[in-house]
Queue: 2 jobs
Job 1
Amino acid sequence: VFLFNSSSWFDSCLFAHNFLPTYSFYSGFGSGAIWLRNSPAKITNSTFFGNETGWDFPPGDPGATSLLCTQSNATISNCIFAFDGTTLFDPGYGIPRMPAINTTLGDTVGPTITCTNIYGNMDLGGDWVGEIASQFGKNGNIRRNPYFCDTTNYDFHLAPNSPCMADSTGCGLMGAFDMNPTCPPGNCCIGRTGNLDCDPDDRVDISDLSAIIMCLFIYPSSCGQHCCPGEENTDGDPYGDVDISDLSALIDYLYISFTPTAWCQ
């Protein structure tokens, strides 16, 4: 969605698996889901999942995976931004990945965020960063795995133990969908982490290594979509982020020191 010199209100919306391609005219200048230019907006009770954008090219021109504000005041409340990604990034050329929410360089206005969960966006610090960093931990803003029911089949209802449930936050429901009582609890990981392919024998092997490589470098939005996302956190990061240290922990366990991966949280 691209808005210019207008105003809008997005309520109870789902933006999932939208992609702004690399090398498009607007690549590095827009967003995979919403780009606001001189356009105040209100975004409430909505879920953003697995949105992607091409790299920041030329370097320094901002983009975002889900929401880019260009001289636009956005008010965001009771939303979830989770498991976004940037494809084909190349830090060797100074081309970084981009965050879920971003503002244009030099902007004096930007989003005001309350009661929102921004989590697992596969960038170089892609959650509460940049202009919105100071809002993390305030006004009900959190950074925790939302525990969706079944994203593979586009079921974005919440598992019974989701931190985004109305009775978990004090903010009311976060996101566009309430709990699905038939969903298994979100924390399905038992024992040690690393079983990304949910082998029935809980065996960690090269197929799990392939899955985490796919998540980090090839198809970022596959992160968080494995049958048990908690298995991805092999280094025991308290926020459950999936990053290069998880890959290192898995390689170390399989081929180097054989040190077991972290316990499930």
Job 2
Amino acid sequence: MSLYPDFVDQATDTPACRSEDPDLFFPEKSETVKARKAKAVCRRCPLLAACEAWALAQSPTQLYGVWGGLSDYDRRQRNKGKPRRQPPGAGRHHHVIARMRAHNPPATWAEIGEAIGVSADAAQKHWRRSHQRQVVAA
């Protein structure tokens, strides 16, 4: 059994956390310096967006530690006020799509779709629709 989510073991890029002590990513409440160091490792990781999307999709009570650059506190704050279950689709992952498209080179639509759990077509359609609305509104 792996310590990492399945998408990490299947990724073509090596996650930054693989070269670090796993204890770094599971700080106690009082270990704020340790948590900041873990988040810094995450920020330089090529899988940050996918890991963040995965972490936000998990139950906050079931996932402990720093995942995708977010502590369990950060994840609870992000999910505060959101419905427990969000409808399926690419719309709820717009920030993940934007991050993955910002990489140089940008992630493929297939990679983005896999990271957020939708087809490549669904991810691309959401992206186009959201940008058409921005152009019309401007």
